Amino acid sequence: MTVGLNHYLAVSGLLFCIGLAGVFFRRNLLVVYMCIEMMLAAASLALVAFSRFRGDLDGQVLALLVISVAAAEVAVGLALIVAVCRRGLKPTVDELAGMKL
Amino acid sequence: MLPLISAAGITLFGLRRPRLAGVLSVGAAAGVAVLSLLVFTGTPFGEWWECSAEWLSVGELNVPVALRFDPLSLTMGLIVAWVSFVIHVYSLGYMRGDRGFGRYFAGLSLFLFSMLLIVLAGNLLVLFIGWELVGVSSYLLIGFWYQRPAAADASKKAFLLNRLGDFGFLVGLLLVWSKTGTVDISELECKLALDPGLLGSLATAAGLLIFCGVLGKSAQFPLHVWLPDAMEGPTPVSALIHAATMVAAGVYLLCRVFFLLALPGSAALELIAWVGAFTALLAAVIATQQDDIKRILAYSTLSQLGYMVMAVGASSVSRPPVAAMYHLSTHACFKALLFLGAGSVICAVHHEQNIWRMGALGKKMPVTFVTFLIAALALAGVPPLSGFFSKESILASVLESNVAARHALFAVAVAVAALTGFYMTRLVAVTFFGPERTQIAGQARESGMILTIPLLILAVPSAFAGFWGIDSAYASQFKGAAVEHAGVFGRIAAAFTHSPVATLWGLGAAIVGIVTGLAVYWNAATDRLPEKLGLVAGWARNRFYFDELYAALNEATHEFLSRLADGVDRWVISGIMVRGVHGSIELAGRLLRLTQTGNIQIHAVLLGAGIAILLLIVLQH
Predict the structure, then answer these.
(1) What is the DSSP code (8-state) at residue B50?
(2) Res. B1 pLDDT band, cuts 50 70 90
(3) Cα distance between residue B8 and residue B3, in whole Å
(4) Do A24 and B601 touch (CB under 8 A)?
(5) Can you give the pLDDT at residue B88?
(6) For residue B518, what pLDDT band results from cuts at 50, 70 and 90?
(7) Which of A2, A6, B92, B477 sits a CA distance of 20 to 30 A from B373?
(8) For the residues of B188-256, what is the DSSP string, one character each?
(9) Average pLDDT, rounded, for chain A
(10) What is the pLDDT of residue B50?
(11) Cα B398 to Cα B307: distance, rounded to the nearest angstrom
């Protein structure tokens, strides 16, 4: 059995859905963060797979870009979580309800 | 044009220079009078000509400023011009020393101009402009003493009631125009002569709508209430409005568009006849119980106008409304004379207008008395004075008319004739005979020359106009057969031979009225009629409560309208529109607020769901 595009995409979709579910349902901010990273990784995997099967490098370049952006985003996000902890709050989504009207 | 220039000139320069204003205005009036005489004699008998200038041209509508000189307008113009001239001269004396002297003459000149515009107008639109101008200038003149609340109210009332009628006139005008495509009088007459069915079923409506304008201007029932109130103006103005001009314009208009009213299949004329008869009777009854000398005359004017309107209504194509115009002309003279005489009396007794506070003035004011008596007898229809002839011709035309109930109409006319004799006798007997009822009546003196000379001038046509053949001048307009008579006695004899029944009834009625009047009021110290008649007299004294009725009606309508407006405002505008919009938005906001829990994950779920829905929609297409 050869590994085709569909397999890659299936894995990518699965990863994305797991990440989405984590974002939707987990309480811990760190875990939510990791799930977001997982969704980005799923997207990157799909990009690389497309690139590989189309025979050009555009998708891979885009994947590199996504990785670097994700790194920056993680830095900001982790900093925010640290800030939350410093204010004496637990790093859970329930604590951050400041957008309630 | 002269009076317009004079009016403008006085307004611009003369308001503070009474002498200049008077000279200018009287000069203009004299010029018009002379010109009218020249044009009248210069135009061959029975012919007509027009002069016009381009004025308004919109699409297919072409309205020139057309002046039309035909027997009808020329004769009418002549009377208007001369009576106005006499009144102008009289005003010089009557208004002397008034602070608004210049303003008064400006109004008078404007009035004369607009009246001549009506008379000479060659198309209905120009006539309408004159019509409105008359309304405006009468407003200015009735409200001349605007410091008095009564005068201000009266002028407002006159103006508003006139507007009410004018609106109908305007609608009728537009109706005629939309159906025939022309407003020119001679063109309209040609078209309607060629095709009498041109207006179709709208003929009656068009006729009655135009008659609405007449209702207002000639103060016919139910718009008659303004005229007696208009007595608040200066007396010469009353003479001008009531005699030759404003109120006469209505009857004149009816004759002008008579071909329109007399279209086959139009029921307008019959209705007009009854409105006229009703007004005549109503006003005559009211006149018997008024105490104010000017109000008596005002109601008698109303009654005589009703007479003329009735005469128009009783005419037909084969019997044109010559009688109405004839009576209009003679009435113009003797009613102007009556008002000017009343003005002279009022001056003499220091602006006292209640006849029960006068008395025995006949000996002290001989000129006024004699001229007033001539006019009163003419009004009552005593031969050989002018009123006799015109009244006789009206009675004859009513008796010969095509109206279904012409005998009832004739009975009303005779009753009015009797009442006329009665109230004029009452007026003369109480004012000029009997005891001196108050001290001021005892001290009265004859008025000055400038007041008495116009009286004398007007007394001439009042007495003798019956012999001048005015009716044949009018008859030539309508291609009707004019009865030509030579000599004084021939005319009197002809009045009897032409239609003996009508004449004898009319004369009999007048005599009965006068004799009853003398019997009741000779040397009377107080009015004994109310005790004898009771309720009717009380009603007549209070003018049949028309003013109160109208006031109540007005109030009720007002109340209803304001309640309606209030309801709309409260429930529709404020309720549905303003509060509804505000409420529904607030409700939506409250509902949407529930979704804003602040929980990031719910936000994220909603975001995801939104994206999913969007993707679904995009991918499906």
Answers:
(1) E
(2) very low
(3) 8
(4) yes
(5) 80
(6) confident
(7) B92
(8) HHHHHHH-TTTTGGGHHHHHHHHHHHHHHHTT-TTSTTHHHHGGGS-HHHHHHHHTTSHHHHHHHHHHH
(9) 87
(10) 62
(11) 10
Which secondary structure element, helix H or strand E, spans residue B388, and what is its range? helix B386-399
Q: Which residue of B has its CA nearest to A36?
A: B604
CB-nearest to B605 from A24, A97, A99 is: A24
Confirm or reject contact between A21 and chain B (CB < 8 A).
no
Do residue A20 and residue B608 have CB atoms under 8 angstroms apart?
Answer: yes
Residue B498 falls in which region: left (phi positive, over 0), alpha (psi -120 to 50) or beta: alpha
Tell how far CA B448 is from the center of its chain. 31
Q: Is the pLDDT of residue B282 over 90?
A: no
Question: What pLDDT is stored for residue B52 in this prediction?
Answer: 61
Nearest CA in chain A to B600: A93
Determine, for residues B597 and A96 on separate chains, whether the beta-carbon distance falls below 8 Å.
no
Residues in chain A within 8 Å Cβ distance of B597: 97, 100
Whole-number average pLDDT of chain B: 74
Half-sphere exposure for B80 (CA within 13 Å, toward CB): 31
CA distance linking residue B197 with residue B218, whole number of Å: 29
User: Which of B475 and B69 is assigned the larger pLDDT?
Assistant: B69
pTM to 2 decimal places: 0.71
Residue B18: pLDDT above 60? no
A81 touches chain B (CB under 8 A): no
Mean pLDDT of B326-354: 80
Q: How far apart are CA B252 and CA B213, in angstroms?
A: 12
Whether A24 has its CB under 8 Å from any CB of chain B: the answer is: yes
Average pLDDT over every residue of B400-411: 74
Which two three-digit tokens encode residue B44? 């061959």
Average pLDDT over residues B380-408: 75
Q: Quote the Cα angle for B360-B361-B363, to 5°.
A: 90
Q: Is the dihedral of CA B237, B238, B239, B243 positive or negative?
A: positive
Higher pLDDT, B9 or B334: B334
Give which of B401, B603, B46 is closest to A100, Cα–Cα: B603
Beta bridge partners of B184: B123
Instruction: Give, in order, the Cα–Cα distances in Å from B281 to each of B162, B250, B447.
Output: 22, 19, 34
Tell me: pLDDT of A19 over 80: yes
Put simply, the answer to whether A99 touches B598 (Cβ < 8 Å) is yes
pLDDT grade for A41, boundaries at 50, 70 and 90 = very high
* Beta strand pairing call for B49-58 and B61-69: antiparallel
Give chain A positions within 8 Å (CB) of B599: 93-94, 97, 100
Which residues share a beta bridge with A92?
A: A28
pLDDT, average across residues B387-411: 76
- In this complex, which of A93, A98, A100 lies closest to B601 when CB atoms are compared? A93
DSSP secondary structure code for residue B49 in this structure: E
For helices B203-217 and B268-287, what crossing angle results, to 10°? 20
In chain A, residues with a C-beta closer than 8 Å to the C-beta of B601 are 23-25, 93
Query: Which of B220, B240, B244 minimizes the C-alpha distance to B231?
Result: B240
Residue B340, classed as helix, strand or coil, is helix
Q: Smallest Cβ distance to A97: which of B598, B605, B608?
A: B598
Chain A residue numbers with beta carbons less than 8 Å from the beta carbon of B607 are none
Cα–Cα dist B190/B572, whole Å: 54
Residues of B within 8 A of A100 (CB-CB) are 596-599
| Number of inter-chain CB pairs under 8 A, A vs B | 28
Of A50-54, B59-63, B512-516, B547-551, the poorest mean pLDDT is in B59-63
- Of the pLDDT bands very low, low, confident and very high (cuts 50, 70, 90), residue B336 is confident
